[in-house]
């Protein structure tokens, strides 16, 4: 059995890692001291498609697998575990709405969650 990452999975990890190192790591210590994550970060996260990791393409999400998501959260945790944990929880909520919500609920909440207009 081959447990190697695909080239797409490697690219996902690299993208999240580079984003974290550029936009999160330099500020993480200050954010931790302040007990906050600035809201200006979330639109940047959304531009990468990370606001709806588990949400289907049709609802504006990325439709990534659990392994893909794990790679994202691991890479971001290298910059700041708090940001990674927060984003993981945000995505779990979106994933549950996408999977179990009725069409009206999905249409009402998912596009804004994926764009990180709602957190």
Mean pLDDT: 97
Characterize the largest beta sheet: strand count, sense, and whether it forms a barrel: none
What kind of oligomer do you see?
single chain
Q: What letter string, H or E per element, gives the SSE order?
A: HHHHHH
Rg, Å, rounded: 14 Å
The tally of strands reads 0
Q: CATH-wise, what's the superfamily?
A: Acyl-CoA dehydrogenase/oxidase, N-terminal domain
pLDDT under 50 segments (min length 5)? none
What percent of the residues sit in helical stretches (DSSP H or I)?
55-70%
Question: Which class do the helix and strand fractions yield?
Answer: mainly alpha
Number of domains: 1
Per the CATH scheme, the topology name is Butyryl-Coa Dehydrogenase, subunit A, domain 1
Strand content: under 5%
Q: Any idea what the CATH architecture is? A: Orthogonal Bundle
Under CATH at level 1, the class stands as Mainly Alpha
């Amino acid at each position: 059995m081959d447990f190697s990452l695909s080239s797409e999975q490697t690219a996902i990890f690299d993208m999240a890692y580079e984003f974290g190192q550029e936009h999160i790591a330099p500020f993480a210590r200050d954010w931790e001291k302040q007990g906050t994550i600035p809201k200006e970060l979330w639109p940047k996260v959304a531009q990468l498609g990370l606001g709806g990791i588990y949400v289907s393409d049709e609802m504006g999400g990325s439709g990534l697998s659990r392994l893909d998501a794990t790679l994202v959260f691991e890479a971001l945790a290298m910059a700041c575990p708090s940001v990674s944990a927060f984003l993981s929880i945000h995505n779990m909520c979106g994933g549950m709405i996408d999977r179990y919500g009725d069409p009206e609920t999905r249409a009402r909440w998912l596009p804004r969650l994926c764009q990180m207009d709602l957190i």
